[in-house]
Each structure stands twice: as structure tokens, then as C-alpha cells.
Amino acid sequence: MAWTYLVLAGLFEIGWAIGLKYTDGFTRLLPSVLTVIFMVASVVLLGLALKTLPVGTGYAVWTGIGTVGTAILGIILLGEPATALRLSCISLIVLGILGLKMAAS
């Protein structure tokens, strides 16, 4: 169950990271409220995951999911560059997440 919590926490991290872009510096009410809700949900789920997972593994996977998802959505939604180097680096993060999952099993 801890890994499920961790993946959900990572997904909520993606949500709040992308949400920050839409808050316009927390001047837009609905995006700001949703972003804060996603922040709280992400941290609560991370805390639940860390009850049984090692903190280093959990934190690294949580930030990795957030980083990869935010970078990909930045490319898709915000028109950020999708260079070969950038995509290669994102792939390395994914490999790191998978390696940590395998090492923790």
C-alpha cells in the first residue's frame, strides 16, 4: 500500500507544480485553492508512504515522479522545449525511480 500512496503523492505533486503556473502568483482564486489542496494531499500521502518505506527512497521517488510528470506536462501543456538532451535526462530520472523501486523490494 505504501507504494500506492507514494505514486499518488507523486501525481498530486505534478498537479500542484503545474498548478503554480496557473495561479499567476496566487492571484487567481480557483487555481490557487486547487494548488494548495494538491500540495496538502501530496505531503499527506508521502507521509503515509514513509511509515513503511525508507525516507531516502520515498523522497527520491516522490520528487522523481513529480519532476518527470511536471517536465512532460510542461512540454505538452506549456510548449516547453522537448530537446533530445532534455528527454534523455528525463529518461534517466525514470530509470532512477525504477532502480529505487527494485532496490526497495
UniProtKB/TrEMBL annotation:
Chain ranges passing through the membrane: 29-50, 59-78, 84-104
Statement: the UniProt record of this protein carries the keyword Membrane: yes
Topology with respect to the bilayer: Multi-pass membrane protein
Entry-linked InterPro entries: EmrE-like (IPR037185), Small_drug/metabolite_transptr (IPR000390), Small_multidrug_res (IPR045324)
Source organism superkingdom: Bacteria
Entry annotated with the keyword Membrane: yes
Predominant localisation class: membrane
SUPFAM superfamilies: Multidrug resistance efflux transporter EmrE (SSF103481)
Key words, A-Z: Cell membrane, Membrane, Transmembrane, Transmembrane helix, Transport
Record's subcellular location: Cell membrane
Coiled-coil positions: none
PANTHER family named in the record: GUANIDINIUM EXPORTER, SMR FAMILY PROTON-DEPENDENT DRUG EFFLUX TRANSPORTER SUGE
Membership in a protein family: Belongs to the drug/metabolite transporter (DMT) superfamily. Small multidrug resistance (SMR) (TC 2.A.7.1) family. Gdx/SugE subfamily.
Protein name: Guanidinium exporter
Gene that encodes the chain: sugE
